[in-house]
Amino acid sequence: MTDNERYIPADGGQVYIRAFGAGAKTPILVLHGGPGFDHTLLLPVQELARGRRVIFYDQLGSGKSDRPDDLSLWNVGRFVRELGQVREALGLDRVILLGASWGTILAVDYMLTEPAGVEALILSSPCLSARMWKEDADRLRLKLGAETQALLLRHEAAGTTASEDYQSGVMKYIKRFACRLDPLPPVVLDAIAGANMQVYTYMWARASSIRRAPLRTTTARATSAASGLPPCSPAAATTRRRQSPRAATNPSSRAPS
Fold first, then answer.
1. pLDDT digit string (tens) for 107-165?
2. CA gap 232, 16 in Å, rounded
3. Distance, CA of 109 to CA of 183 (rounded, Å)
4. Closest Cα to residue 201, out of 13, 104, 61?
5. How far apart, in whole angstroms, are the C-alpha atoms of residue 199 and residue 236?
6. Does residue 123 sit in helix, strand or coil?
7. Distance, CA of 196 to CA of 236 (rounded, Å)
8. Were 58 and a residue from 4, 65, 119, 142 both cysteine, which residue would form a disulfide, CB within 3.0 to 4.6 Å?
9. Continuous H helices in the chain
10. How confident is the model at residue 96 (pLDDT cuts 50, 70, 90)?
């Protein structure tokens, strides 16, 4: 392990930290997508380490962090607490948060706890409404063709989403809607191969039950226990931006990662 790598304790296990750069400017803390993927897809953000630190961490259950086999750990509240524990361990009294995809859900829900010292919030490929994401994902799936749709539905109904057959259908979705480079870059293939699908499938499968238990998006702090995802509606995020630091938002891509 090099000087810019370390582990810190968090609820449920040890979390891997990787930092680049130095300087007096406010450090950037990067929140990766998934959940269950790691920070490597976002490594180009290290180019911002000019006069400041850029800090990555693999959320518990992903990358080089511990991977406990405990479904009770996979909920947004624990990930929010983990983010606070990372800040505390690293002494990040002042920080800029940069979240990507699922990381934007984590960032916004963390901001709803009204933490001190967050100078800016950057949302890349934001996914702030599980309901809207589910609707968009269903719409895109209809473009995959009848055979692939039937394959996905069959395995989802049978609970066999870990099978190679099902994953082949997922890969068709990824290549068409998430990353259109052909062939897929090695960094993308490595990220997919190294992902903890227990975490990803468990948390997004709960979100997929939206039709049976809709997320409540009418008030910023409403929760839906059945969905397991936070009340991060665009309206709630807008309200929070009026009261807290500047926020930058990049165009959304609808495939969470």
1. 999 999 999 999 999 999 998 888 888 889 889 999 999 999 999 999 888 888 878 99
2. 27
3. 35
4. 61
5. 26
6. strand
7. 30
8. 65
9. 76-90, 102-111, 130-141, 146-158, 164-173, 186-194, 197-207, 234-243
10. very high
Q: Are 233 and 222 in contact (CB under 8 A)?
A: no
Q: Tell which CATH architecture fits domain 1-257.
A: 3-Layer(aba) Sandwich (3.40)
Q: What is the dihedral of CA 89, 91, 94, 95, to 10 degrees?
A: -40
How far is CA 90 from each of CA 12, 124, 133, rounded to the nearest angstrom? 18, 23, 33
pLDDT value at residue 127: 87
Residue 116 is classified by DSSP as T
Which two tokens mark 235?
């309206």
Closest alpha carbon to 244 in 74, 110, 124, 65: 110
CA within 13 Å, CB half, 109: 27
The pTM is what?
0.80
Specify the DSSP element, H or E, that contains 99: strand 95-100
Cis-peptide into 183, omega within 30 deg? yes
Residue 233 phi, psi (nearest 5): -75, 155
Please state, in angstroms and as integers, the Cα–Cα distance from residue 72 to each residue in 81, 202, 212, following that order.
14, 10, 21
Instruction: State the pLDDT at residue 11.
Output: 97
Q: How far apart are CA 112 and CA 117, in angstroms?
A: 14
pLDDT for residue 99 is more than 50: yes
Is there a contact between 36 and 104 (Cβ–Cβ < 8 Å)? no
Contact 172, 98 (CB under 8 A): no
**Nearest-angstrom CA–CA distance, 253 and 89:** 32
User: Contact at 8 Å (CB) between 248 and 123?
Assistant: yes
